[in-house]
Specification:
alpha+beta; five-stranded mixed β-sheet; 9 helices; about 40% helix; globular; binds ligand LTE5OB6J; binds magnesium ion; magnesium; metal-binding; Inositol_monoP_metal-BS; Inositol-1-monophosphatase
Length: about 325
């Protein structure tokens, strides 16, 4: 039998089997209860918090990534290593997207497989400066749909969590957004991310100007996208918008907001896409749409664009806030 004949027989049978297996995965993920997985995620987040609390108080070696404002420390890398190895030990077939693994050169690919999306320290600049808003963000997706999200605001000791279809909680207390529908009665949160190029800075400042002149009650920035968005789920703020963040910053908190009754959309008004690096999370669709109408986005490569995440530029040595700031070691950083 020729190779072609073998291939044609195989392809006749393979396709249905492939379809069958991906359909089975879809059906099982719908039926699957990921509670046990989420509880394990919460358990390891609590362990990781202890490492962060200890390191928060001591002097840090700080490395730079894509800009003088894009910081990373040994603790970011150690916590991500700790989380991933703990998950691999229990769920060896699960996949991972980790901020510092991607920064060290791993490809960012979200498949239908069970995938943990991890930001070991969201708010690294806060961590370096001992500004007390530092979070661990862990999302879990199957078939590219987030099944649960965990955001642990470590210094505040506030553990936010949500499982798809089962509500959102902070330290086990149910959460609900403000439900505010009038933009002029809104307190907004946003982030001035790590971008320092002129277009990004001009866009961010003009967005703030346009929103303030609506007017809105105010605009805040906590320094961690994950905590910013969790504040929407508590009703403590009414809407969050951001351009330039990454999937690991917001995958968990996007589910927490929607499970608290909020809405999460793209800044262009379309459906939220965690890889697009643009988000509006709000107490109501009317507020979300009003913000989408007011703001502009600057261009960002999608997180899942193979050309994204080039090796970060080497930035010169400098010292900062009592910490030693080092340029990133050449090539891939060890994790
Ligand atoms: O602290 P990170 O995990 O790097 O995330 C930060 C990000 O670096 C910064 O640019 C802002 O977008 C913050 O909102 C993120 O949380
Ligand atoms: Mg982050
Ligand atoms: Mg981080």
């Amino acid at each position: 039998m020729s190779l072609e004949e073998l291939h044609s027989i195989f392809s006749v049978f393979a396709l249905p089997i492939f379809d069958l297996s991906s359909n089975i995965l879809r059906r099982t993920s719908r039926m699957a209860d990921w509670t046990e997985c989420m509880n394990y995620g919460i358990h390891i987040a609590r362990e990781a918090r202890e490492v962060i609390l200890h390191a928060f108080r001591i002097k840090k070696a700080v490395m730079l990534k894509s800009s003088p404002a894009d910081l990373v420390t040994e603790t970011d890398q150690r916590v991500e290593r700790m989380l991933i190895s703990a998950i691999k030990a229990k769920y060896p077939h699960h996949k991972f997207i980790g901020e510092e693994s991607v920064a060290a050169g791993e490809k960012l690919i979200l498949t239908d497989s069970p995938t943990w999306i991890i930001d070991p320290i969201d708010g690294t600049a806060n961590f370096v400066h001992r500004f007390p808003f530092v979070a661990i963000s862990i999302a879990f997706a199957v078939n590219k749909q987030t099944e649960f999200g965990i955001v642990y605001s470590c210094i505040e000791d506030k553990l936010y969590s949500a499982q798809r279809g089962r509500g959102a909680f902070c330290n086990d207390i149910p959460l609900a957004t403000s439900g505010q529908e009038d933009i002029t009665k809104c307190l907004l949160v946003t982030e001035i991310g790590a971008e320092r190029d002129q277009l990004a800075l001009a866009t961010m400042t003009s967005n703030i100007h346009r929103l303030l002149e609506i007017p809105v009650h105010g605009i805040r920035a906590v320094g961690t996208a994950a905590v910013d968005m969790c504040l929407i789920s508590t009703g403590g703020a009414d809407a969050y918008y951001h351009i330039g963040m990454h999937c690991w910053d917001i995958a968990a908190s996007a589910l927490i907001v929607s499970e608290a009754g909020g809405v999460v959309i793209d800044t262009n008004g379309s459906e939220f896409d965690m890889m697009a690096r643009r988000v509006i999370a709000a107490s109501s669709m009317s507020v979300a749409r009003r913000i989408a109408q007011a703001i502009q986005a600057f261009p960002c490569e999608r997180d899942d664009d193979p050309r994204a995440h080039p090796q970060k530029a080497q930035i010169e040595h400098s010292t900062d806030s009592g910490n030693d700031v080092h340029k990133k070691a050449g090539g891939h950083r060890r994790l």
